[in-house]
């Protein structure tokens, strides 16, 4: 007779099926399996069977074959991963778009360049409408309003145009008054920007010129525009 190891749960199950005192586990299992329980050889147990350890040893050829098979599987897995790593991504990812559209060294695109290449600054001059404005202040404000319409979001660069210790443009009236009580700030129509207007005509022309240059306007064009103030 041979012995096998069973877990605690299975042992409890077999024990629960006992029908008589002295009934062995073998008798219980044979009864449950529908096998006869008479004339069972009860010879001494010389060896405890452990089926999991009774596997026949592999020959050298079988071991080599098994090793080669495992090696091929590993090499195939590594090769597949390498191909996936170097394969060119499909579609337009954000990184690909950024890489394609990024300017080369020394060719950085600024807002002023965009404005200069996509708009004709000379179109802000409408002599008929300029003639209807009141004085230099009116013409100055009209040209700034027209320029804001041409520049769009890039018009925010007017905030970078400042004098020595002077603030010419701001987001609010209070900000200009805080810098100078005599600034006489006025809001540029159809925008959220304010400009100081207490400068003489020559200064107004110079301020507008600096704004045009900041937005990428050619200097000769800028000079032809500011003379309309």
Automatic annotation (TrEMBL):
Residues 136-137 are annotated as: Interaction with DNA. GO terms for cellular component: cytoplasm. GO terms for molecular function: DNA binding. Belongs to the SeqA family. Its main location: cytoplasm. Signal peptide: none annotated. Residues 1-36 form the Negative modulator of initiation of replication SeqA N-terminal domain. Residues 120-225 form the Replication modulator SeqA C-terminal DNA-binding domain. Negative regulator of replication initiation, which contributes to regulation of DNA replication and ensures that replication initiation occurs exactly once per chromosome per cell cycle. Binds to pairs of hemimethylated GATC sequences in the oriC region, thus preventing assembly of replication proteins and re-initiation at newly replicated origins. Repression is relieved when the region becomes fully methylated. Keywords: Cytoplasm, DNA replication inhibitor, DNA-binding. It is found in: Cytoplasm. This is Negative modulator of initiation of replication. One of its GO terms (biological process) is negative regulation of DNA-templated DNA replication initiation. Pfam families: SeqA, SeqA_N. It comes from the Bacteria. Homodimer. Polymerizes to form helical filaments. The lineage of its organism: Bacteria, Pseudomonadati, Pseudomonadota, Gammaproteobacteria, Alteromonadales.
């Amino acid at each position: 007779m041979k012995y096998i190891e069973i877990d605690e749960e299975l042992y409890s199950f077999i024990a629960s099926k006992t029908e008589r005192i002295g009934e062995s586990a073998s008798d219980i299992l044979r009864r449950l399996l529908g096998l006869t329980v008479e004339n069972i050889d009860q010879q001494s147990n010389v060896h405890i069977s452990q089926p999991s350890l009774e596997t026949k040893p592999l020959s050298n050829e079988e071991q080599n074959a098994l090793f080669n098979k495992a090696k091929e599987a590993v090499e195939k897995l590594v090769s597949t991963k390498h191909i996936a790593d170097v394969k060119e991504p499909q579609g337009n990812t954000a990184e690909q778009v950024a890489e394609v559209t990024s300017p080369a060294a020394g060719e950085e695109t600024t807002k002023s360049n965009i404005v200069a290449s996509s708009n004709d600054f000379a179109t802000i001059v409408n002599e008929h409408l300029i003639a209807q404005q009141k004085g230099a202040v009116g013409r100055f404000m009209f040209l700034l309003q027209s320029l804001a319409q041409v520049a769009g979001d890039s018009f925010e660069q007017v905030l970078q145009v400042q004098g020595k210790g002077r603030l010419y443009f701001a987001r609010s009236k209070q900000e200009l008054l805080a810098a100078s009580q005599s600034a006489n700030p006025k809001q540029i129509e159809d925008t959220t920007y304010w400009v100081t207007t207490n400068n003489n005509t020559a200064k107004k022309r110079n301020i507008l010129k600096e704004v045009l240059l900041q937005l990428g306007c050619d200097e000769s064009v800028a000079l032809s525009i500011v003379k309309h103030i």
